[in-house]
Design goal:
Length: 193
C-alpha cells in the first residue's frame, strides 16, 4: 500500500525577487538577510519586507523569501485580491508566470513596476523521488488532499512536484488553512484519483 500521510505547512503571502529588483528596491550591494531556514532545502525567510501595490490598494510587510530568483514573483492569498484590486488574479504554479498580473513593489530604496508576476499559488506537495515512489505519485500528477477534523474538507487539484532538491511537504496557503481550522504542522491524507 502506498503511503498517504503528509505534513502540511501554511504559506502566507510572500515575494521572491531577482537580483536586479533587489538592487532597485534596497540599493546597490544589498544582500538578503536570512531570518530562518524553511523546510525546502536552500530556501529561507528574510528580514527584508516590501509593500506590494495593485490598482486599488497596497499591502505592506510582504516578506521576501530567498535565495534570489531568476524572475520576480509574488504569491498572494485569494483574500488579498480585493484589497489590491486585482480580480482575476490567476492560480499558478511557482515560476509559471505567463498570464499573471502586473503589480508594483515598493522598497526602501526604490519602486519596481512589474508587467507580470502576481499569482495565487496553486496548492502543491513537494516530494523527493524516494517519497514520490512511496506515495506512488509522479511529477505534475494531480491528487486530492483530505484534512480531517471539525472543519475538515477535501482539497481538489493538488499538484505533485517531484525533484531531488525537495523535502516531502504539502503547501496550502493561510486562506486554505483557516478554512479548515489548521495551522502549520497539521497532517493531511493524499487521495489518489
Amino acid at each position: 500500500m502506498p503511503e498517504t500521510k503528509v505534513l502540511v505547512n501554511l504559506s502566507n503571502r510572500h515575494i521572491h525577487v531577482s537580483k536586479e529588483d533587489l538592487v532597485a528596491l534596497f540599493g546597490a550591494g544589498h544582500s538578503l538577510t536570512k531570518t530562518k531556514d524553511l523546510m525546502q532545502p536552500g530556501q529561507f525567510a528574510c528580514d527584508e519586507t516590501v509593500t506590494i501595490r495593485g490598482p486599488k490598494g497596497a499591502i505592506a510587510g510582504v516578506r521576501i523569501l530567498g535565495p534570489e530568483r531568476k524572475e520576480t514573483q509574488c504569491e498572494i492569498l485569494s483574500s488579498d485580491v480585493f484589497k489590491l484590486g486585482v480580480s482575476g488574479c490567476p492560480v499558478r504554479e511557482s515560476g509559471k508566470l505567463d498570464g499573471s498580473m502586473p503589480f508594483i513593489i515598493e522598497g526602501p530604496a526604490g519602486t519596481v513596476h512589474k508587467d507580470k508576476g502576481l499569482i495565487i499559488a496553486k496548492r502543491h506537495i513537494h516530494f523527493d523521488p524516494k517519497s514520490a515512489a512511496a506515495f506512488d505519485v509522479k511529477d505534475n500528477e494531480l491528487v486530492d488532499l483530505r484534512i480531517d477534523g471539525e472543519r475538515g474538507a477535501l482539497f481538489l487539484n493538488v499538484i505533485c512536484r517531484v525533484n531531488e532538491a525537495y523535502a516531502k511537504e504539502c503547501h496550502l496557503d493561510f486562506d486554505e488553512g483557516n478554512a479548515v481550522g489548521i495551522a502549520s504542522g497539521a497532517m493531511g491524507t493524499v487521495v489518489k484519483r
